[in-house]
TrEMBL record:
Residues 29-131 form the Cyclic nucleotide-binding domain. This is cAMP-binding domain of CRP or a regulatory subunit of cAMP-dependent protein kinases. InterPro entries: cNMP-bd_dom, cNMP-bd_dom_sf, RmlC-like_jellyroll. The keyword Repeat does not apply. PROSITE patterns: CNMP_BINDING_3 (PS50042). Gene3D superfamilies: Jelly Rolls.
Length: 206
């Protein structure tokens, strides 16, 4: 892990790794969070480093965690007729998970896989539920994270219902340039629901 460093506020009282520091900053952007809540949350957290193509979650397995992306990015995908269909990409300061599998205990229909070297903080959901029962701030944090993930999924679904392929590409240009800068053309085309050749034509018109 990277060197620890301190920051103003209650971080002056504790020493955390850079990954945890970034997570704490992210938490504060979502909801008020005390030093006591941070310490209570610790048993649920694990720092992880993954190489490209390693899995956070494999299709056919139950999801038991949320993953805060500290650096790098990963993709959610499933296989259809031998082809990878990408359904989501998670970049720095995103939370990756499978909400449905978490809630129901059913096996995941898709995988979440590192698309480049990846640093994450893993939230173990079983432990998270235990500490949430002790601290309302942690409970509020968990609900907020799940709301953000659900909102992202709704936006993706709305793209397909309301926009043409050209409009979907333009929307990504305006809303999330990281997708166009860091995701391969093949992966991006399946995410947009078009053939690679179609996406190349769309890009050439821009």
């Amino acid at each position: 892990m990277q060197n620890s460093r301190a920051r103003p506020g209650f971080l002056e009282k504790i020493t955390v790794s850079l990954e945890m520091e970034n997570l704490l900053r992210y938490i504060h952007s979502l909801t008020p969070f005390s030093e006591e809540s941070w310490q209570t949350l610790q048993p649920a957290l694990t720092e992880m480093e993954l190489q490209k193509d390693e899995f956070l979650l494999e299709a056919g397995k139950v999801c038991h965690a949320l993953y805060f992306i500290d650096s790098g990015f990963c993709r959610a995908w499933y296989n259809k007729d031998g082809q990878d269909i990408n359904t989501a990409f998670f970049f720095e300061n995103d939370i990756a998970t499978n909400i449905s599998s978490l809630a129901t205990g059913e096996k995941s229909a898709f995988s979440i896989q590192a698309a480049e070297q990846l640093s994450v903080v893993r939230f173990d959901v079983k432990t998270l539920r235990e500490v949430s029962a002790k601290d309302p701030a942690i409970d509020a944090l968990g609900r907020k994270c799940l709301q953000l993930i659900a909102a992202k999924q709704e936006k993706h679904a709305a793209m397909f219902k309301l926009m043409t392929a050209q409009e979907r590409y333009e929307y990504l240009q305006q809303q999330d340039g990281r997708l166009l800068q860091r995701v391969s053309l093949t992966q991006l085309s399946s995410y947009l629901g078009v053939a690679r050749e179609t996406l190349s034509r769309i890009r050439s018109r821009k």
